[in-house]
Amino acid sequence: MPRPPLALRFAALLSIAAIALHEARHLIGFGDHAGEVLAARGHAYLPLAGVLAVMLLGLAMAHLLVLVGRARRTGAAEVGTPGPLGSWLVASAALLAVYAGQELLEGAFAGQLSAAHLVADDGLAALPLALALGGLVALFMRGADAAVQTAARAGRAVRPARPAPVAAPMPPDRAPRPRRSLIALRLAGRAPPSPA
User: How many Å apart are CA 109 and CA 193, to the nearest integer?
Assistant: First the structure.
């Protein structure tokens, strides 16, 4: 979907949203006992995944700051996020795919691999959660594009007009000399005879 500069931002936002989706779905399904259930079902990797997602988000934010600085300096914006509806649908579908893959892998490691594992214990709550979080991902993607475009406009507005180039003075031996009249050079010849 996104071009390479946008792929980092999209992956970072998607990873944070996938962790939020996973946690929210289990809070809905298990309430106050979600932590105990997650520990029993092989979710020990989630703290590490959270750290990696935050590091990826930090990298994406640093890259966004570089893009904003470049846009301010050059007046050119590097954007390309698809429309809001397309971004929302792609992000939501990606979140659902990540969630399904995550649950199926966890079920396989826990010895409970089945499609019923996806919808058990209010698993269908993942669908509206994915739609909501996909909307947030799309909103943040559009916001980052708007920041780059605003910086580019500000860069174009601040940039001074280029002054006209100044001609370098010619060396004295090649400088043009003023033309002198023929009379001043005494090359005019004799004056006409007087009529008297």
Answer: 126
The candidate with the shortest Cα–Cα distance to 67, out of 146, 161, 156, is 146
Domain ranges of the chain: 4-158
pLDDT band, residue 187 (cuts 50/70/90): low
Q: How confident is the model at residue 2 (pLDDT cuts 50, 70, 90)?
A: very low
Task: Supply the pLDDT for residue 1.
Answer: 40
* Closest to 30 measured CA to CA, from 121, 127, 123: 121
Neighbours of 180 (CB within 10 A): 9
Are 120 and 23 in contact by the 8 Å Cβ rule? The answer is no
Closest CA to 11 of 48, 45, 52: 52
